[in-house]
Structures are given as structure tokens and as C-alpha cells.
Amino acid sequence: MNNYKQLSDRERYLIEQYINVDKIGINQIALKLNRNKSTISREIKRNSINIKYESHAAIFNAKNKELMKHNFTMSKYREFVIFFEDNFDKKYLGVSVCIAIAQKQGIKTPTSRTLYNWINNSCLDIKPNDLLRSRQIFFRKKHAIPSVFHQIPKDAIPINFRPSSINQRLDEGHYEIDLIISSQARNTGLLTLVDRKTRMGYSTKIYNKYMSHINEKLEYLIYKYHLKIKSITKDNGREFNLLFKLKEQHCFALYTCNIYASCEKGTNENFNGLIRRRFPKGTNFSNVSEEEVQLVVEQINKMPRAILGWKSSQELIETSIYEVLHL
């Protein structure tokens, strides 16, 4: 059986024309609109005023009926609606995160699709413009990937030879590294480091892209957070070409992505996207303090994530530490 599709505004205007002006019968109207004659008959009976079909009244009634349907459904989730409108934050507590937190608290929740429908139909105080991104599907352009041995820096292993245990995120301690650079002040930006398993992220300000400076900042993160690094995956940026010195000092493996394939360190790319929610493109990082950066990183690490089963990176780290202490 085919899915029923509501009559469109245009079809209702045509029905008014066919009945009131052209004096065409129901069977012929159904043929012209490629609709079942029962559909046309019901539409005319519902929306005839003084024996005359009114398309404007029909359109108003249809939209009002749709709104009433949403309101009826929403009444079953009244507690969640209050929770959602009080807690929604497009940067850190989006639609899916709010649903997950509400479920943990035992609140009855609608599906995310239903919630997006309520937003798009202006049934809530949260409007479509309040969402971080419009719900669109983007298709990535495919690029040819050059030979993996082309321009491989010293002591870096091509990512194609990275062990499956790292690829499958079985252990903590395997990191991805990247930079976020200011478009206004190209000498300032952020160094970001993310654990592949727990998605725990670390970041600090950088003041230039010199290789020695990047090494200093990475070492600062290692010592500040007592990181036990087993491997680091990087891209082909020249600023990372001296990492082999830290590799020898801290005894970790160094892997390099294929050229023009930054998606191969997608964990870090996603973390950078979360940071960009607070510091969008065009941000001048020379005007951003280290304290502001750390506050944003802390919020991200405490944010429930779908990919982590709606736990936060911080929760996974704390669980891991607890398990080690109680072995």
C-alpha cells in the first residue's frame, strides 16, 4: 500500500477552481490530480462553506490540525519539554545530548526526529535558528590519495602500517595531534591533542608555528597532565617535523596520515569542531586567554557523547583510574 500524502496548498486551490468555476465533478478532479476520489470527496465535505468549497479555509484547517497533532503528542512529554527548554545549549547540550540526559534521569522522551519536527514547526521556545547546524546532509568530495611514501618525514610511520589495536581503539594512550590557527593573527592558535579511545582532549595556546615551539607546547601538555603516550598520529604539516625528538625522549610511536587525508585523524578533527563552537573561524586567538581555552576544553570533556554511550570523556578516564587502583 502506498503511503498517503496530504493534499498540497496548490491542489486545494485547483479543487476550488475545478468545483466553483469549471463545475467539474469529483471523479474528473480525482483523475486530474491523480488522487483517489474518496480523498477528494472527504476534502470537499470537510471544507465547504454554504455549499461552496473554500481553499483558504481548507489550508487553515489542515495547518491547525497539524499543530493540534503536535500539541497532543507534546502533552505526553510535558516533563521533557520543560527540561529541554530549560537546559538546551546549542554548543554543549544539543538535541541528542538533552534526550540522553533526560533518559538517564528517568524522564520520558520523544525521538530526536520528533523533537526536531517540534522545533521546525515552532511548537517550542527553541527555534530552528537556535540550532547549531541546519539538518542537512553534506557529501565529501573524494580526492585521490598519493603514494603513502611520498614526503614522509623522518622517523614517521605511514598510517597504513598502524596496528589494528590502535585503529580499533582498544587501548588508551594513542593520540591524534593538530593545530587550530587564527585567520586574523596567523602566529597564534591552539595545539590540540586527543586520545583515540576516550576522546579526552587537551589544548594549549601557541604563539607561532615553529617546529621547536610546537615541541615545547606538546611537552608542556605531557608534563602538566602526566600523559602516558603510546603513539601520536599527525598530518603532514611541517610544524610537526621535529616530533621525532619527543618520540625518542618519551618512547612513543609516530604515525603520519596520507597527504590530503586529514579525515584519517577524524577524532581530533571532531574535537576541533567542538572547540570551534566556542571559537568560530575568524577568532583572533591573541585576544583569547589560556584560562578561556581550558574552560572550553573542560566543558567538552564533561559533555555526554553519543559515540561514548552518552558518557563523557571525563567519566571514562575516572572509571579507568578507578579500575587501575582496584586491581
From TrEMBL:
Statement: the UniProt record of this protein carries the keyword Transcription: no
Molecular function GO labels: nucleic acid binding; transposase activity
Entry's Gene Ontology cellular component terms: cytosol
Tagged with keyword Ubl conjugation: no
GO biological process, one term: DNA recombination
Gene3D superfamilies: Ribonuclease H-like superfamily/Ribonuclease H
Top-rank taxon, per record: Bacteria
Domain Integrase catalytic per the UniProt entry, residue ranges: 159-321
InterPro entries: Integrase_cat-core (IPR001584), IS30-like_HTH (IPR025246), RNaseH-like_sf (IPR012337), RNaseH_sf (IPR036397), Transposase-Integrase (IPR051917), Transposase_IS30-like (IPR053392)
Pfam families: HTH_38 (PF13936)
Keyword set, alphabetical order: DNA recombination
Signal peptide extent: none
Name of protein: Transposase
Record organism: Williamsoniiplasma lucivorax
Lineage: Bacteria, Bacillati, Mycoplasmatota, Mollicutes, Entomoplasmatales
